[in-house]
Specification:
single chain, about 600 residues, mainly alpha, 3 domains, 26 helices, 4 strands
């Protein structure tokens, strides 16, 4: 017999949900109509608003032609949103059932998740838990030490041209692939709360960089065992490359975190029909794509693994149900990704994301000549600051995990196969040579597999003391993490790395210029020096007009020659035009470890 009021409550919930869906359809329609209406606004008032947001006070790139292109896209995407509103309205019953299914699976999912976390992190030997805490703290400590290192080019440009701008500009103006949108959004929030100090700008990357350590432990724990997980966490905590990108305001640690999150969810979803878990999977994938479009690489690998696992490990209706949920999850991820990128598609155009210079196809000869260089550079970055003996042990552990694939339910072999099956044709189709930093997610795969194989060797060594097995692994992992973190600090490689463009004396040079520049002085600085100096000028409240006004209007030129990048005075003067060559002979104004400043007085 039905309890009094239970049916009424259920009916009221469904009625309210139906109303919410109608409101959502109305919001989509309103958004489409708003975009269409926006296309009718004249150029002048919009130009005035955009100029006010520009760093220089005049947005020269915002021309009538660009405005006409944006207005055309407003009409197109306005019509697309209106069509989406219609589809949303017609399919509201199916969407309602999907949301009710999500709501019904919410509590069981979190209950199972809490149980998994307790089992993975708490319900284990105390020695392992203490060792994991030591590893996470050492990871946080070594990353904190580099948070205040000199700002670099890519992160300075991200902050100046995107994150420090009004939010509507930050999430819509895709001026270059340098703008990692979700990371930019987080930096914008950090800047709003904590200011423009280097440590504040780097907080999002740092936060996710530290989270990578327990996330690595969790993934290795789910696919291997707690001993391999502890070793993998120790290696991730002390990886020089991961430390570096945890202390740079870039989106790569965020992408790596969402990759590990998808892997962790995949271990659960390959056997469980859980609508809410599939929704979290879709949202994590969409946020990964929103951070950096190269999420295409890890997502493709994970999708292949998940599909193969569902097909091979399930039968009958269970297999069909899981494949159906996977397909729906992929559609939801695509919908969220499109929604996140909608401001970019309207303002900057889809080509800004899919057709920028970074993903422009290269010739086959270029590809064949540079891919070996990429592989070698990637290998050196992955092993940077590790002792040579450890390089060999990790490589041996990686090979051992592949050869011992039966012991690990064939996961190492499946992971390696999916990586090649996906990446080789995708890179061949794109005909691009991605930067070394793109493969940081593969570094995590490598460390996890190497730890699994290395763990097998250590297990054999610890077989003589079975009761002390946990203690042997705990002491080994904690000592490994602490020693390697100290090695990263003492080596100074992270500090002196030229990744993403450096001017290590940028703060001191900016301070010197602020004290010595006179009206009419023009500072001549090429990338990466220009954006770095501009950041420090911004930070100190100093006007940056000296960096961009025409050289021909200058009375004196101060040339910043960045010797870290083999810049020469002659090249910089030649690139600045004939006006820079019509003055007195260059005179050394100041000299720093990474750069030399020259003074040229122009002829009257």
């Amino acid at each position: 017999m039905q309890e009094p009021g239970k049916g009424t409550v259920k009916m009221t919930t469904q009625t309210r949900l139906g109303q919410i869906l109608l409101y959502a359809a109305g919001a989509l329609l309103a958004g489409g109509l708003a975009l269409a209406a926006l296309s009718c606004v004249s150029f002048e008032p919009v130009k005035a608003v955009i100029d006010a947001m520009a760093i220089t006070g005049t947005a020269k790139i915002f021309t009538r032609d660009l405005y006409a292109q944006i207005m055309g896209r407003c009409r197109i995407f306005g019509a697309a949103l209106s069509a989406a509103a219609l589809l949303f309205f017609l399919g509201r019953e199916q969407i309602r059932r999907y949301i009710l299914e999500l709501a019904a699976s919410f509590a069981p999912f979190w209950k199972k998740t809490a149980a998994h976390f307790r089992e993975a992190f708490l319900q284990q030997e105390r020695a392992l838990s203490i060792a994991l805490l030591v590893i996470v703290l050492s990871a946080a400590a070594v990353r904190v030490l580099f948070l205040c290192q000199p700002m670099r080019y890519d992160e300075s440009a991200t902050f100046l041209y995107n994150a420090s701008r009004p939010l509507v500009v930050a999430v819509s103006y895709y001026n270059s692939p340098n703008n990692h949108l979700f990371h930019t959004l987080l930096v914008h929030l950090a800047h709003s709360i904590f200011g423009s100090a280097p440590w504040a700008v780097r907080l999002p990357a740092f936060f996710f960089g530290v989270l990578l350590v327990p996330a690595t432990f969790l993934v290795a724990r789910l696919y291997f065992n707690r001993y391999a997980a502890l070793l993998a966490a120790a290696l991730a905590a002390s990886s020089s490359a991961l430390v570096e990108y945890s202390a740079l305001a870039r989106g790569y640690t965020i992408l790596c975190f969402f990759t590990l999150l998808l892997f962790a969810l995949g271990a659960y979803l390959r056997r469980n029909s859980d609508a809410f878990a599939w929704f979290i999977f879709a949202l994590a994938a969409a946020l990964g794509f929103y951070t950096v479009p190269v999420m295409l690489y890890p997502f493709g690998i994970i999708a292949l693994l998940l599909f193969a696992s569902i097909v091979m490990q399930n039968r009958g209706r269970c297999r069909v149900l899981l494949l159906r949920q996977m397909f729906i999850s992929f559609l939801v991820a695509a919908a969220f990704t499109a929604l996140f990128y909608l401001p970019v598609f309207v303002v900057s155009g889809p080509g800004a994301v899919t057709g920028n210079w970074v993903v422009a196809p290269q010739t086959w000869s270029y590809l064949s000549n540079n891919l070996p260089v990429l592989l070698i550079s990637t290998w050196f970055q992955w092993n940077r600051d590790y002792p040579k003996a450890l390089d060999l042990f990790l490589a041996l552990g990686f090979l051992l995990s592949i050869l011992s694939y039966r012991r690990f339910r064939k996961f190492p072999l499946y992971l390696l196969s999916a990586t090649f099956i996906w990446l080789v044709p995708v890179i061949a189709a794109q005909r691009v040579v991605p930067a070394v930093r793109i493969w940081l997610f593969l570094l995590l795969f490598y460390l996890i597999l190497a730890a699994a194989g290395f763990g097998l060797l250590l297990e054999k060594a610890a077989a003589r003391w079975p009761r002390s097995k946990a203690m042997v692994f705990s002491v080994t992992a904690a000592a490994l993490s602490l020693c390697l973190c100290l090695r990263v600090i003492s080596a100074g490689t992270v500090y002196y790395s030229n990744e993403t463009g450096t001017l290590r004396d940028g703060a001191a040079i900016a301070a010197y210029l602020q004290e010595n520049l006179q009206p009419g002085d023009r500072v001549l600085a090429n990338a990466p020096s220009d954006a770095i100096l501009q950041y420090y000028f911004y930070r100190n409240g100093y006007p940056d007009r000296c960096l961009w006004f025409p050289v021909g209007e200058a009375k004196r030129i101060v040339v910043v020659v960045n010797e870290s990048f083999s810049h020469t005075l002659h090249e910089m003067l030649a690139g600045a035009g004939p006006a820079s060559l019509q003055g007195s002979l260059p005179r050394v104004l100041a000299q720093y470890e990474s750069a030399t400043l020259y003074e040229i007085n122009l002829k009257e």
